[in-house]
Fold this sequence. Notes:
Elements: E1 8-12, H1 16-22, H2 24-32, E2 36-41, H3 47-51, E3 56-59, H4 69-86, E4 90-94, H5 96-108, E5 113-117, H6 121-126, H7 129-142, E6 147-150, H8 153-161, E7 170-172, H9 191-194, E8 213-217, H10 226-237, E9 244-248, H11 261-270, E10 274-275, H12 283-287, E11 291-294, H13 303-310, E12 315-318, E13 333-336, H14 341-353, H15 356-373, H16 376-392
Parallel strand pairs: 1-2, 1-4, 2-3, 4-5, 5-6, 6-7, 8-9, 8-11, 9-10, 11-12, 12-13
Amino acid sequence: MGSVVAVKVLICLNTAWNLVNFRSGLIKAFVAHGYEVVAVAPPDKYVNQLSELGCRFVPLPMANGGTNPLHDSLLLWRFWRLFKQEQPDVFLGYTVKPNVYGSLAAHWQGIPVINNIAGLGAVFISGGWLVNVVRSLYRMALGRSAKVFFQNPDDRAMFVDSGLVRNEVTALLPGSGIDLMRFAPPVLSSQTELGYLASPTDKDCHDDSIQFRFLLVARMLRDKGVYEYVEAARQLRQRWPKVEFCLLGFLDVQNPAAIARHEMDDWVAEGVVNYLGTSDDVRTQIATADCIVLPSYREGTPRSLLEAAAMSRPIITTNTVGCREVVDDGINGYLCKMRDASDLADRMSQMLQLSYAQRSEMGLRGRAKMEAEFDEQIVIGKYLAAVREAIGNTSLR
């Protein structure tokens, strides 16, 4: 009798960091089910961590922020060559370029494709002629996909209504899901996990001497509402001079909406915000924050808010696509208007004026929401079912 050949899953994102931080649970689940997993991305310092997940890494150069047609044509050829060499049984695409060029190359070779549309990105938000180009590419890329996952109903409706994807192959996911064991309230986490036990400020905030920390966790982009956050901090400092307004995330990213380093340096020099750089374990920073803020213009489902709520932190975000799914206004946080620094400052002021007990209750309700709606196991279950369905509709090579 011949040996059973393992199903080969090829999963591609725009950075190895993304694979490690957002898809490690899914990769480990595939490996546990006996699948061979090939992880593909441009190489970075996180590559070594992928081998610990039980997968094999293949580097693929990719200009994530570029729109040069020659570079994109080269990327399409690289995907075609990669699939020819690897012969995967199914391709999982995330982020714009793997979803577009990876899907096209996979379709040409008869490889089933499962896409994940995790938000629409800066191009869709800013508008312009490039949107029409991207729409056309998506229409070609998603036309023959076995499954296309979306992270909120608004994005799915837009793609379906625009004729970019057939409704019958779409499905909704609760973002990338959240590992509820890893992202737990600090009082439930061991000292070895976090390095210490932390809890929100236990002082009520009815005077200007309060020590309180707001934290924005995101790539440093205009579309994440960074300008509004900084302006809200300026307004609030007049009343609460000792409140800390922190930012954590990648600066100088390849993106047309990127915040320039000199801008961040100016804000820090002004004393309005504190830039914390990046972290390989955001739990340590979330644990020391009293409230997580993300005034984003549009999201798939923001991972930073899922992590914060899972760790029982109250959150403030915009009443917009992808963000409002995570917050029940007044229950586990507050919703503010998009691109409105004054309204954001009002919501942050409301948070400051809550008692410690009220903020703690908000955090507990956020944790309960994550357990009920955003558990990573929900995402893993849907992916396992989608892969089984996709390979069941093709003959394994």
